[in-house]
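Researcher: Checking consistency across runs. Here is Histidine kinase/HSP90-like ATPase domain-containing protein again:
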Amino acid sequence: MKQTILKLLLFINSILLIAYMGLTAHADFHLNTRGVIPLFLSSLLLIDVTYVSSCNIRENKTISLFCGLLALESWYILLAASGNSITNTIFFALSPVIWCFSIKFILMFLFQNSGYKYQKLINLCLTGTCIFALIGVLVSSKIFFLLYFIQFMASWLCFIFTVIYHRKRVAFVFKSEWRHIIFSLIAVIVLFLTYYFSTMRVPEHLSNFGVYIPILLFWVSIHGIILKEQNSLPLSAVFSNRQLTLLIFSGVIIFSLIAIILDGGYSLLFIMLDALFAFLYVCNIALDFNFKKGHNKIIKESKYHVALQQLQREEQLNLEFANFLHDDILQDLLSVKNMMKKADRPEVQKIITETLDNMNTYIREQMQDYHPTLLPKLTIKENYQNLLDGISQSFPNRNICVSFDCSDSLFLVEPYNIFVYRLLKELVTNIYKHSTGEKAWITLTQDNGIIILSVSDNGTVDADVLSSADRLKHRGLAMITERVNDMDGSVTISNNHPHGICVQTILPMKGDVSYQHFVSR
C-alpha cells in the first residue's frame, strides 16, 4: 500500500510538472535553445520516472528513492531556466536537497542498503548540513551560498572518506559494473559533443550546462545498473512488447502532427508526450493494484504476471511459515509454560519447563535457519558476532573460547552475506556439538572478490577420517560442500596443528549475481 501511495504521489508530481510546463510555455511556444534544452531534459527524466516506477515490481526501496530523485531533478532542470523570484527561491532550495539525497542514494546503492562503518555519523552530517542550507534560503542569498558551500564540502568529504575507508567494496562495484559505467560516460560525452558543435553559433548555448552533465551521467549510469533485471511492465500483461512499441510510436507521431498543425513548436510536443506517459503510468498503477489484489480479469502468461505470481508465492510461503511458528507453536508453548507454574509437583514442573525451553530454542533456531535476520544497521562483522554469541548461549554446558578475526570494513553483498551466515552457523555449531576441543578460531576475509572462511578447532578429530566418513553421519558438512561447489567454490578439510581440524571455504563473489539479487529482493 505504501508503494501504491508513493506511485500516486509521483503521478501527481507529473501532473504538476506538466501544468508548470504549460504555464511557462504559454507566453512563447517557440522557445530558444536555452529553453528547449531544460524542457527536453526535464521531460526525459519525467518519462523515465514513470518507466522505472512501473518496473519496480518488488518495491525495492533504493529504486523508489531513485524515482524520487529523478522527480526532484526534473524540477531542478526546469526551474534553472526561469527568472522568476519565487521559482528562483524554489530552485535554490532544491539544490541542497538534491545534493543530499544524491550522496545518500549512491552510498545506499554501493552498500545495497546494508550497514557500514560510520553510517549513522555520515547520515547525520548529510542531513544536518542540508537543513542548515535550507534555513539559509530563508535568511539571505549570501548566507545560503555560504551554508550550501559548507554542505557541498562536507558531503564531498563524507563521500570521499566512505569510499576510501570501504575502497574494496567500491572497487568491487566498479569491477562488476564497469561496462555500464564506461558506456554511460561515452554516451554522455558523445551527446555533449553533438550538442556543442551543433549549437556553436547560438549565443549562451552552454549556459548552466554544467548542471546537466553530472545529472545526465548520474541518470544514465544508475539507470543501466538497477534496471538490467527489470524488463516488464503491468501493461505487458495486456499488450505485447511490439504492441506497446506501436502504441507509443503512434502517440509520438500523432502528437508531433498536432504540434506542427498548431504551430506549437517543441514545447507543445514535449508537454503532450509527458501527458501521454503520465496516462500510461496511471494505467500501470491501476493494473498493478488489480493484479496484487487479485482483481485481474486477464489470464495471460506475461512476464509481469509470471514474475508477480512467483513473488506472491514466495511471500505467501514466508508469511504462512512465520505465522505457523509464531501463532501455532510459540504461543502455545509459552501458554503451557505459564500454566505449568501452577503444577503441584515441583519436579514435574521443572522437567516440563526445561523441555519447553529446549523446544522454544530449537524452533527459534529453525526460524533463523530458514530466514536469517541480518540487521541492516549493523556491519557484517557485528551481525556475525551476534550469531556467534547466540550459538554460544545455545550450548551453556560447553566452554569454548572462540576467536573471530574479521575486518570492520568487510563487505559481502547479497546473497553471499546470507550464504556465509549459514556456513558459519553450521561449522561453528558442529564444533560445539562434536568437537572435544576448548578453542576455536574463525577467520573471514574478502579480497578481490574472493571470500575465504576458515573455521578450525583444537579437538581430536583427524581430517582424513572426517573426509572419508559416511556422508549420512555428517550431512551438514556434506550439504555445505555441495552448496559451495554449486557456487563455483571449494571446501578443504585439513589438520590443524598441533591437533584438530580446519575447514576452509573459498567462494568467488560475483557482482552480477549480487546485483540481480539486490534488485529482485
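Researcher: Does this match what you'd expect to see?
Model: One thing to look at in this run: Residues 179 and 458 are 47 Å apart (CA to CA).
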